[in-house]
Amino acid sequence: MNEPVAAARPPLIRIRGLEKRFGARRALAGVDLIVERPEIVAIVGPGGAGKTTLLRALAGLLEVQAVEASVLGHDLRGNVTGLKAKTGYVPQAFSLHRMLTVHENLRFTARLHRLPEATFRDRAQELLAITGLEPFVARPSGALSGGMKQKLAIACALLPAPSLLVLDEPTAGVDVVARAEIWAMLEREKHRAVIVTSTSYVDEAAACDRLVYLQAGRVLAAGSPAALGAATPLAPYRVWGDDPRAAARAAREMPYVAAARASGRFARIEITHAESPGALALQRTLATLPGARLAEPLPPDMESTLLALSRGLMRMPDGEPPGSGGKEPRAAAGATTAS
Asked: pLDDT digit string (tens) for 3-44?
């Protein structure tokens, strides 16, 4: 006797043809996005691409038009009260009550979500420990550092254990240590919740499970960082020498160079695969640039991927449905910028 086949679970997020206008300006121009399971989805793209609008739409905060717009089983075009109860949202600007203490902000959030007292105590204690905010429970939130403000905002968003966590640039402007702590929180939560976040950092884009590149209100490409990296038509090289700026300036005149910039004692040069004269010839040529002494190839990385996307050099990887699963990304400690 054959075992019954379990019905396929619908995607947690299924968006087709999502549009949003603000007067005559179209902020979203037909976005497609599919997220099948809990994971971290990073939305990246230049300023004005529509990232914040997309995040607010997914959180049920905007009236939108779409062919299909289902998030956690709720239609974004209808009553989204049920969706909001399952969603934690962290906007770019700090929006908690600055006069309330850390503990009071958590308790206020618990009351909004009607959490039982025992649940609140357990969740608050856990989140305070994870964020390192325990020593500051009596401090007004307005007196916290930038990093602690962001961690408190995320803690409040996580307090009701949402199934969807939406964060708009949660690590922008915070120090390196706080940024790492915030990302560790997201990694911890991704096993039970869909996390959709925008980021301007290359290393965070590389660390996500799925990357969505938005431009002019449309999804230009989407997929895992590995899949997008494999489709990148650029090869990075590092050129060492006494004058990296001169080397970068000279490299920009070459027909097969997509971008070049100086960084410390070397110049990073992006080569277009299709037009390259070949690895050996290329290395010799780069080593003879003004101010250069040595050239070496680098492994493909997220900076090359995002640069190729921003220049319109890439399309959706084969087999990746659209959306499945400003400012250019900034560098931080151990990361490089794609601008």
From this structure: 555 556 889 999 999 999 999 999 999 999 999 999 999 999
Residue of 67, 15, 18, 16 whose CA lies nearest to 217:
18
pLDDT in tens, 240-289: 999 999 999 999 999 999 999 999 999 999 999 888 888 889 999 999 99
Domain 233-299, what fold?
A: Alpha-Beta Plaits (3.30.70)
Nearest to 137 by CA among 99, 101, 107, 95: 101
Cα–Cα separations (whole angstroms), residue 318 to 241, 298, 333: 39, 25, 33
| pTM as predicted | 0.86
Which of 42, 20, 47 has its CA nearest to residue 31? 20
| 13-86+162-227 topology per CATH | Rossmann fold (3.40.50)
Q: Where in the chain is the domain with CATH 3.30.70?
A: 233-299
Question: In sequence order, what DSSP letters do the residues of 207-239 get, joined into one string?
Answer: HSSEEEEEETTEEEEEE-HHHHHHT--EEEEEE
